[in-house]
Amino acid sequence: MNIYFACSITGGREFESAYLALVQALTEDGHEIPTSHLAQSEVMEMEQSISASEVYARDVEWIDHCDALIAEVSVPSHGVGYEIGYALQAGKPVLCLHQRGRKISKMISGNTHPALEVEDYVDVPQAIQKARSFLGSFS
């Protein structure tokens, strides 16, 4: 399955270890994740050489061709919010994961779109389990 993984880049990297673990687990499960580089520590340097319009065009194309979007939303991010809305508008199933106890945008937690699931997690293994369950529900 082709999964678009979304996470905070410029908004903060506090949950980078969770990003890495999620991407690694889903990749090991055989999923293709074109955005896997977003989980890496070097993402800011890798993305520096690409213009904003190129990033937008690339990412929209990736969302258009993905089977689902999984977003880690514990750290607020304008870009991730946009990607979630775009994916839902495009008819893609979306899972938003966040650490239990973290406040997330009410635009996400209050959204009743039938293709959107919002799940909290206690630890990274539970986040991975919830992502696998989400993917298994429609594959």
Task: Describe the structure in your own words.
This protein has 139 residues and is of the alpha/beta class. The protein has a single domain (3-136), classed as Rossmann fold, CATH 3.40.50. The chain is built from 6 helices and 4 strands. The protein has helices at residues 16-28, 43-48, 52-65, 78-89, 106-109, 124-136, and strands at residues 3-6, 68-72, 94-99, 116-121. The chain has a 4-stranded parallel β-sheet, with helices on both faces. Helix 1 crosses helix 6 (124-136). The N and C termini lie close together (8 Å).
Main sheet: which strands, in order across? 1-2-3-4
What is the H/E string?
EHHHEHEHEH
Q: Which structural class matches the secondary elements? A: alpha/beta
Number of helices: 6
**Molecular shape:** globular
Number of strands: 4
Give the uncertain stretches in residue-range form: none
Distance between the termini: 8 Å
Oligomer class: single chain
Helix content: 40-55%
How many independent structural domains? Answer: 1
Task: Tell me briefly what this model is.
45% of the residues lie in helices and 15% in strands. The chain is α/β, with parallel strands linked by helices and 139 residues long. The model has no long low-confidence stretch (mean pLDDT 91).
Helices and strands in order:
Layout: E1 3-6, H1 16-28, H2 43-48, H3 52-65, E2 68-72, H4 78-89, E3 94-99, H5 106-109, E4 116-121, H6 124-136
Parallel strand pairs: 1-2, 2-3, 3-4
Helix pairs in contact: 1-6
